[in-house]
Every structure is written in C-alpha cells, then in structure tokens.
Amino acid sequence: xxxxxxPGPPEDRxxxxxxxxxxxPVAEEPGPxxxxxxxxxxxxxxxxxxxxxxxxxxxxxxxxVAGYVPGVNILNxxxxxxxxxxxxxxxxxxxxxxxxxxxALFGLIPVRSGGVTLxxxxxxxxxxxxxxxxGVGYVPQNNNVFPSLTIExxxxxxxxLRPKSFKERFDYVAELFPLLGDRRKGKAGxxxxxxxxxxxxxxxxxxxxxxxxxxxPSAGLSPVLQDEVFIRCRRINAxxxxxxxxxxxxxxxxQICHRGYVLDQGRNAYTDTGKSLMNDxxxxxxxxxxxxxxx
Length: 295
Ligand SMILES: Nc1ncnc2c1ncn2[C@@H]1O[C@H](COP(=O)(O)OP(=O)(O)O)[C@@H](O)[C@H]1O
Ligand SMILES: [Mg+2]
Known about the structure:
The chain is α/β, with parallel strands linked by helices. Helices cover 38% and strands 20% of the residues. A hairpin with an 8-residue loop joins strand 1 (59-66) and strand 2. The longest helix is centred in the last third of the chain and has 16 residues, at 223-238. The protein is globular and about 60 Å long. It starts with 32 loop residues before the first helix and ends with a helix. Adenosine-5'-diphosphate binds next to helix 4.
C-alpha cells in the first residue's frame, strides 16, 4: 500500500501540505540560525508551532511533565494534539516515553505539570471511568484481555457502563473482527496473540469511543497479522473513531497515519504528516534507518 492510499481526515486539515508543495525545497526563512537549520518537521515540533496548530484539537496535551519515580521525569515538556477524525502515530526509540505519554493522556500516571484536555475540557489525571464515559478508550500493550473469561464476557466488560447497548455494539465489533463473533463462547486465554489483540481492541470499541489510544497494537505479531492490525486501524478510523497509535513498526505506522510524532527523551523531536516524516533525512537517519533494516 502506498501513502497515497491514506484518506484524509474529514474536516479542515491545517497540517496538510498541498501535493504540489510536498517535494518543493523549503526556502530558508530569515531568523535565528537555529530556526533556519531546522527541518519543517523539527520546526513543527516546537512549542510555538504546537500552540498555533493545536487550537481546537479533540485531544491536546501541553508541556507535559510526568514520571513514575519521585524526582525522575520521563516526559519532559511533551506537546501533543489529535484533531477530530485523525489517526496519529507516535514512534521513537525504546524508552523514549511513548507508553508513558499514553498513560499520561489516560490519567494512569501522575502528571507533574502541564495538562491534558478533551474537547477543551481539562481531563488531566482524570480517573479511567470518567475518561471511558467521555468516550476515550485505551488498549495497553500487554495484559489487555481477561483470559479466564469468554470473548463475549470480555466484550461485556467493555460495555459495563451501558449494558443495554451490548447487542448493537457487539454487532459492530463482530463486523470489524468476524472471529470475535464466530468464537464468542471461547475463552480469551485460548487465543493467539493476534486474536487477543482483536479482543482488546474490540472491548475498547464496545463503549463506542470517539478516541482510541493504542499501545503497540502490532507488537509480537507475524508480518501478516501486523498488516491486518494496521488495516483494521484504518477501518476503525474510517468509521469515525480518532486514533492515537504508538508503534515500534515505525515505517508501517507512518504509512497509514495522517500525522506522526517522533518522541525522543520524553519530548517530541519531530512532527509532520506521515509521508513527510518518512522522507525527512534526519528522521530517516536517526529513527528509521536501523528500524527499517530490522524489518
Ligand atoms: N512502571 C514504571 N516504573 C518506573 N519506570 C518506568 C515504568 N515504566 C516505564 N518506565 C521508564 O520510563 C521510560 C520510558 O518508558 P516507556 O514510556 O515505556 O518507553 P517506550 O514506550 O517509548 O518504549 C523508560 O526509561 C522506562 O524504564
Ligand atoms: Mg512502550
């Protein structure tokens, strides 16, 4: 699949670059030497640009500082936004803080400064049940199914706040993941890694979220199943669910996402459209070269 296949998000896309300008050399702007030396993706990752572009975003994080151990910050002033309808990828080296960012967005670790908003409403450190009722779904990388429960029971856990909508939601999820309907009475613990990933995503979708946070949905899967996960994510996004996806599979992620962030040492180092990031020489050299060889 080529990046040209990626459909644009539905509304006003301030970040999109007209096709005619995408490969045009960037004229050096007057200003401080450091700004002139920055690539467009580096410049877009600055606070000034974030403040300019993040206005009106569906999910927005500003200057986040967070960590696990007192005195040790893992996120060091991280900025992030997700516009309505977008599929945004977060890539970066191991230990960069990608999972930590998702946990901070979902209120799972203490935020020391900065904040998170959803449709302009402050949700910094909000409890999970409130976030779920506001339409945010989170699929952690590991331990994301109840293995002793059946697929159907796992799906019921996903809809516990609105049990009456079970049938309608299950029909939607089973259409996306037919296996979940076919094997609804089977124990989730008996499934393969790829199938469990479907259960985890299905469960999050049961609540009819408007935003889905996915932590490495393709991790540990065979290349064929990885591809399926990316295609499903695109389909879920096309049904109107905005998605934030953390991925080790950087190139594949950038191919399917509308925009991407490269996170390094707890802050965003580069951000741009997926296509532009894949073509940015510094991003290739620093983050895609070795990863690309490993694939
Ligand atoms: N539960 C935890 N307690 C303490 N430190 C943690 C915990 N989880 C992650 N870290 C540390 O936070 C840093 C970022 O981790 P993480 O967000 O998982 O990185 P990534 O997802 O980008 O690989 C790492 O240095 C990691 O050791
Ligand atoms: Mg991680």
